[in-house]
Here is the input.
Amino acid sequence: MAAEDTLLRSIGCEQNLLSLPDGSANVTQGDTTVLAAVYGPGEVKMSEEIIDKATLKVIFKPKVGLPGCAEKLQERLLRNTCESVVLATLHPRAGINIILQVIQDSGSLLSCCINAACMALMDSAVPMKCLVSAVTCALTEDGQIVLDPDSKQEKESSAVLTFAFDSRESNMITCSTKGCFTPEKYQECLSACGEASKNISSFCRQSVKKRMSKELKVKM
Here is the structure.
């Protein structure tokens, strides 16, 4: 597999930033930054109530302006991704709201949003089957694969693909693509992003461990 860049940009995470939500996380990937907040499980409108599981709602807020069609598509992708890992049946007739605020978009925004949502869900202690980690890649005009591309690399690419994987068996749970590519290149991108997602999952676990160890020291 030809690859121009198989390294991910630097990633950072800070949880429990906000006092009002039940969980929050600020995730940075390179210069891309997303702030996620989780409210619930809690009360839900009767019209949105589901008798055998929780109602999961995602609100995606762009950096500037009001949400448009593109943002609504992002919301649906994010909701479907979160629904695949959240154990919603443990909280029937309740509501779980996830709000994602874009602070800075410097490429690979969708994967950063998914990772931020996962970290915020962990911070809120919402029960989940597993973690979810997402990676974006770009295909250059000559067929090279660039992992975690920035805005400039995305604009110059022939295709941009984002994959989300579960942390238990590394199965793909979400795929979003834009542009033209062959089936062979799709499989190469899937494989490259799958391997890179393991680093994201490992980072998430280490981030939570460090935070918990600090809290335990403070309590002691």
About this structure: The two ends are 51 Å apart (CA to CA). The beta strands are 3-5, 11-15, 23-29, 32-42, 55-61, 95-104, 132-139, 145-147, 159-166, 172-179.
